[in-house]
Amino acid sequence: MKIKINLDNTSSDFAKEVEKRSGIKVKECYQCGKCTAGCPVAYEMDYMPNQIIRLVQIGARREALTSRTIWLCASCITCSTRCPKEVKIAELMDVLREMALEENLANPLEKNITAFHESFLNSVKKHGRISEVWMLNEYKMKRPKTALQDLAVAPHMIAKGKLSFLPHDIKGKDAIARIFKKCKPK
Amino acid sequence: MKIGYYPGCAITKGSSSEEYGTSVMRVSKVIGPEIEEIPDWSCCGASSAHATNHKLSTALSVRNLSLAEKHEYKEILAPCPMCSQRLIISQKDVQEDAVLKREVEDAIEMPCGTKVKVSNYLEIVKNYYMDEIKQKIKKTAKGFKVACYYGCLLVRPPKVLKFDDPEDPQSMDEIVRAIGAEPIEWEFKTNCCGGGFTLSRTDVVVKLTNDILEGAEEAGAHAIAVACPMCHANLDMRQKKIEKEYKRKFNIPIVYISELIGLALGLGPIGLGLDKHFVDTKSVVDAYT
């Protein structure tokens, strides 16, 4: 895929910033493409995994942080495992997602994914554990278009006692809430 | 041997993959280990924490390691590979980064649990209980072909997890052989099923799991064995949707390795949770005689 980048908007500090935050040696990548060849979700991505690294190398901050790719990475870690230069690509995706959220740049086309993460973590924050019914409820409220897609499996889950409507509150849930407070992004 | 038990959210009673937890506990009563739930354990943060906030992800995981050490466990069993992977990675991160360690200790209000060993279920069985299985086996499933599906989280990142081969792992295959069934050669052992995208990008999960089911079918598998609640949910719960989407029929039972061990030990299928699956498991139960 051919991509056009406006070099006026690049900054050499970006690669340094990413390296400093994560310890990942982004500059080691020589663009062999092995990460992309083994990526199970590459077919859905706007930039291939090796292109994301290239964007970081040349300092194309906005392109990297607004990409759909960083959200579509399933964290299967096949890329990092096979990289001949031991660049931790999957772990790089974690850092880029974190930065995208901090700067409010998360791609709106992958809102289902970010809304899922929010719903999941809100459940942990509130109860200390995942309460699947309530997490699902929050997610479906956030993404009403997905409301019907899982209905087919719900009756089986309920009939088999696999969806408990009681939240799994732990004793130390206040301690968990404090963890969330202390780990709030800057 | 007494081991701390970290079930994680997905396999506790009343959750989507409770049969994994149920069968692990039933089998443990027969062959070991003696497991004790870590008091007041909390969620490890799973994919959502590490995908969005590294410090939070580390603190949520390490809290459980600290609790385990507080209760003097030397080793803990985390049957869910999302949990075991996150616990191991977080432990390594605080071991290697003094600043992060201080921040995490401030957040969890406890010293970081940096010593306790975290093991997945395959590791525990393979390291300690293979002889026990051989002695206590009551039934076999001769000629029953099982595709061992490891997924991502048990084997990657290999340098951190240090468990089996990331491209062609063998531990589950060895267990399947020990319980009298036949592990098959196939190419999808460690391919990704789409994991946590089951609700947010179901289309991705449906495509990836179709490839995996097709691979198992072509290799002649009668069933797929898993040791991960996410792999199970995507292959079992989504199988009907996959069949509809791709206009084909698989009807391949997806069973937890602990359920298979249980059947071989002569435990009843219902007690093991084999009635809780979406795809009927009767052919698996009938294979054990």
Question: What would your notes on this structure say?
Answer:
The complex is a heterodimer of chains A (186) and B (289). Chain A has 186 residues and is an all-alpha fold. Chain A has 11 helices and no strands. In chain A, helix 8 packs antiparallel against helix 9 (132-142) and helix 8 (111-127) packs across helix 11 (173-182). Chain A is globular, with a radius of gyration of 19 Å. Chain A starts with 12 loop residues before the first helix and ends with a helix. The model of chain A has no long low-confidence stretch (mean pLDDT 93). Chain B is an alpha/beta fold. Chain B contains 15 helices and 8 strands. In chain B, the strands form 2 sheets. In chain B, strands 2-1-3-4 form a 4-stranded parallel beta sheet, sandwiched between helices. A 4-stranded parallel beta sheet of chain B has the order 6-5-7-8, sandwiched between helices. In chain B, helix 1 links the parallel strand 1 and strand 2. The radius of gyration of chain B is 19 Å and the shape is globular. The chains are: A mainly alpha (186), B alpha/beta (289). Chains A and B meet through helix 6, helix 7, helix 8, helix 9 and helix 11 of A and helix 2, helix 3, helix 5 and helix 10 of B.
